[in-house]
Amino acid sequence: MRKILSWWKKYAYIVMLIIMLIGIFYPKVMLVFIICMLGPSLTGLFTGRFWCGNICPIGNFFDHLTIKISNDKKAPSLFKSKYIRIIFTILMMSMFSFEMIFAFRKPVMMGMVFYEMILEAIIIGTFLSVIYHYRVWCHLCPMGSTGALVTHLSNRKKVLNVSLHCSACKKCEEKCPMGLAPYEYRGKKLSSYNCIQCGICKTDCTSNAIR
Question: What whole-number distance in Å separates Cα of residue 61 and Cα of residue 11?
């Protein structure tokens, strides 16, 4: 399973781009992305936002491509506001629902709706990457926000833990793509629903305090 996940983290964005290329000629194939809509919420019950940091092909696109043009500037607090995220999620999901109702029982049109949704996420996310950080979109993503809500409500989720051995060197904060400061959770669980469990803080922790 680890080998499969490792492979996916390397090539998920390529798989996504290939499917989108095929989708230009055969829109029905885009319906496979319904998995990306349901994934964050379903996995959020047990693994927190693990999907966002490890499985999401759009996030993988940012990790491999837009990171190269990213301004590496922290996202403004406005993007992290739960009220802004709720409003943005309701707006985007309302538009998506309306289009899907209109395209109901028309697989080609439904596929085109998914194509539009994925393309918009890539364009907006890339634009935000140039101005701010390469993972800024993940603060606004409707699917990520829904997954964050499920994660917040679930008591069964697995999360990262920051041990008392943490030296508060703040290197984890510098590396975190979501702008979190794991050292602030010293001796506790990293319970923030913004944590996408990408594992970067764990890998870069000099005191091996994050597990």
Answer: 9
